[in-house]
Write a structure and sequence with these properties.
The chain has 289 residues and is of the alpha/beta class. The chain is built from ten helices and twelve strands. Helix 1 crosses helix 2 and helix 2 packs antiparallel against helix 3. It is elongated and about 80 Å long. The two termini are 45 Å apart.
Length: 289
C-alpha cells in the first residue's frame, strides 16, 4: 500500500479537527478517574476495505502521546464484519476524547476505498483502469485520493497544475474569439511545459479528430453512449489515450470498459462516499491496588 503524501498536512488537518471538537474542554471525561486505563479496539461493523489506519491512530497520539497504538489490519486490506482493525491502550479519558474524530477519518476513507474496490473488481479482467477526479472534500484531497489508491484505483490530477484539461467551457470561450478546437489544442501544447499532458473533453464524435489533429494526448469522452464511445476509441487507437467520464455506475462500468477505453473516471467514489460502519469498543481496566 502506498504511503500518504504530505503527511504534515494530514497532521494539521487532524489538529484542526480536534480543535473543532474542543477536546481540550471535554465536559464529560473530566468526571472519569485520571488513572483509569482501558484497551480499545476499532472494529468493522460491515464488510469493506480499510483505509486511513495510521490517520486514525495519529488522532489518538495527538490527544495523548502516551497511548499505545497498533494497526491490526493494514490499509488496502479487505475486512469482514467484526474484524479488529486497530488497538489502542492507555488512559481511558484520552481514548474517549479521540474516539469520534478518529472514527470520522477512518469511516470516510474506508468508505472511499470500499466503493473504489467494487468498481475495480467489476473490470478486473479488462485492461481499463479506474481513476478518480477532483470532486473531493475541500481540504481532504490528499486523503481522499489516498483512499482511492487503497481501494485499487489510480489518481487523476491532484490539482490544476498537474495537467491541461480542455473542457467545454474553454472550447466555447475560445470559439467566441474564432479559435477552433484543433488550434486551441495546439496553443495549449505550445504554452504547456514539456512534461505536461494535454487532455481534451469531447462530447461528439466530430470533435475527436479535431482534438487529435491538434496533438491531444488524452481524449475524454464525456457522457457518450456505448456505440459512439466505441467509434471514438477506434479513432484514437495508436494516437491518444481515451478516458470515459460521466454517470459511470456499477451497473454500466463493465459495458463501458468493454468499448476499449483506457481510463474510466468516477467522481462518485469520493463525492458521494458512504462511510464504512466502524465503531470503538472499550474495555476499562481498573487501577491496581
Amino acid at each position: 500500500m502506498s504511503t500518504i503524501h504530505r503527511w504534515h498536512e494530514t497532521v494539521e488537518l487532524i489538529r484542526r479537527a480536534l480543535a473543532e471538537d474542543l477536546v481540550i474542554a471535554d465536559a464529560t471525561t473530566r468526571f472519569l478517574p485520571s488513572d483509569l486505563e482501558g484497551e480499545a479496539m476499532l472494529i468493522a461493523k460491515q464488510q469493506g476495505v480499510v483505509a486511513g489506519a495510521e490517520v486514525a491512530l495519529q488522532v489518538f497520539r495527538e490527544v495523548d502521546p502516551s497511548l499505545e497504538t497498533e494497526v491490526l489490519t493494514e490499509d488496502g486490506s479487505s475486512a469482514e464484519k467484526g474484524t479488529k482493525l486497530m488497538r489502542i491502550y492507555g488512559n481511558l479519558g484520552s481514548i474517549l476524547q479521540a474516539e469520534r474524530t478518529a472514527t470520522n477519518f477512518l469511516q470516510r476513507l474506508s468508505g472511499i476505498a470500499t466503493a473504489t474496490r467494487a468498481y475495480v473488481d467489476a473490470i478486473a479482467d479488462l485492461p481499463a483502469v479506474l481513476i478518480d477526479t477532483r470532486k473531493t472534500l475541500p481540504g481532504w484531497r490528499h486523503l481522499d485520493k489516498y483512499a482511492v489508491r487503497a481501494g485499487g484505483g489510480r489518481n487523476h490530477r491532484m490539482n490544476l497544475a498537474d495537467g491541461v484539461l480542455i473542457k467545454d467551457n474553454h472550447i466555447e470561450a475560445m470559439a467566441l474569439l474564432g479559435v477552433g478546437l484543433t488550434e486551441l489544442v495546439r496553443i495549449a501544447r505550445e504554452k504547456a511545459l514539456h512534461t505536461i499532458r494535454i487532455e481534451v473533453e469531447v462530447d461528439t464524435l466530430a470533435q475527436v479528430p479535431q482534438a487529435l489533429d491538434g496533438g491531444a494526448d488524452i481524449i475524454l469522452l464525456d457522457n457518450m453512449d456505448i456505440a459512439t464511445m466505441r467509434q471514438a476509441v477506434a479513432l484514437c487507437k495508436g494516437r491518444a489515450l481515451t478516458e470515459a467520464s460521466g454517470n459511470i455506475t456499477l451497473e454500466n462500468i463493465r459495458a463501458i470498459a468493454e468499448t476499449g477505453v483506457d481510463l474510466l473516471s468516477s467522481g462518485s467514489v469520493t463525492h458521494s462516499v458512504r462511510a464504512l460502519d466502524i465503531s470503538l469498543d472499550v474495555t476499562p481496566i481498573l487501577p491496581s491496588l
